[in-house]
Write a structure and sequence with these properties.
By secondary structure, the protein is α+β, with helices and mostly antiparallel strands. Helix content is 36%, strand content 17%. It contains 3 helices and 4 strands, in the order βαβββαα. It has helices at 9-18, 66-82, 84-93, and strands at 3-5, 27-30, 35-40, 43-46. Strands 1-2-3-4 form a 4-stranded mixed sheet, sandwiched between helices. The longest helix is centred in the last third of the chain and has 17 residues, at 66-82.
Length: 102
């Protein structure tokens, strides 16, 4: 399933509403917020504990999406272990992401 990476969960939400290349079931990753989910119909749904601007599925309904949750979490964990630094650097280079001023 296709993975789309964004600088913020708000951007992911907005882009999922207007881009023709983001389809139902596609994965949406936001490494800077540690948010991952998928597009369910027209709504980005969070599969991670952090949900950012994504919608959440009630705990009582999660059993309906158990396999989807597991797949998204596994894909996101692999992504964060392998590719996130490259994408984050690209976002930084294009002034689309700034580190938190701690």
């Amino acid at each position: 399933m296709p993975i789309h990476v964004f600088a913020s969960s708000g951007e992911a939400y907005d882009q999922s509403q207007v881009r023709d290349d983001i389809n139902d079931g596609d994965l949406l990753f936001v490494p800077s917020e540690r948010v991952a989910g998928w597009l369910e119909g027209a709504l980005p749904v969070a599969a991670t504990d952090n949900d950012g601007d994504f919608h959440t599925i009630k705990v009582t309904d999660r059993h309906l999406y158990g396999q989807q949750f597991a797949e998204v979490r596994e894909s996101f964990a692999r992504y964060m272990n392998e590719d996130w630094a490259w994408d984050l650097n690209a976002l930084y280079d294009h002034n689309l992401w700034q580190p938190a001023g701690l």
